[in-house]
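INFO  loader      accepted 1 record
INFO  loader      residues=267
INFO  predictor   begin
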Amino acid sequence: MAEGKHSGNQSLIRGLQLLDILSNFPNGCPLSKLTELSSLNKSTVHRLLQGLQSEGFIKPTNSMGSYRLTTKCLSLGQKTLSSMNIIHIASPHLETLNLILGETINFSRREGDHSIMIYKLEPTNGMMKTRAYIGQHMELYCSAMGKLFLAHETDKRYLDEYWVEKKAIIKPLTNNTITTVENMKIELADVIRTGFAMDREENEMGVVCIACPIFDLNNSVNYAISVSTSIHRLNQIGKTTILTELRKTSQAISEELGWQPDEKMVG
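INFO  predictor   done
INFO  writer      dumping tokens
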């Protein structure tokens, strides 16, 4: 009985191995190549493929003896992603960051032309608290997390269109606020180059913010994480220390969302 159970587990593992290999061949992979890559014998691979085909996970291609994944695998992946609760995934990492740095931790999601604060942890050191609150809609142009969303926008026309549409809203909240599209383009190029964004007292005097992007499996940036602190605390702790811990956290959350480290987090 135990032997049969072990055999079933082995077949399951081998079948999953074949699915993983096929995921790298969108146009199909020949049986001979699958045999080579899996280090299994041809008859075993063929038997496993027949089982996967009968369950609808793979199908033959137009090339004789080749197989590829079906959309059933895509559907399975999408169901897995949709079942993920982003706060449930991110909160342990954010809480750890909060304990390490002792500063305000912010987590936001992009919704169109705004950044929405969906999670916030108050500082454990010091008394300074920011005005930001959970559920707050923040403009993209004047916050560190907003700059990340602008920098990683895939539509190259978006920034110019955004600047025109938000003309009445884009105004200097402090002397440091960026209010021209030309200066913002320079800023966003620097964000892409360094891999992080800063709010240098652009939204609130005395308060600075450092933010890093959260990447998903498509390398898209729909979420961002930031650390808010006072100028005094920034000088005390050091930007390098904050950024090092922030990057560790953003990478850990990104990996849980399916992002692959070998796609290289900028910076």
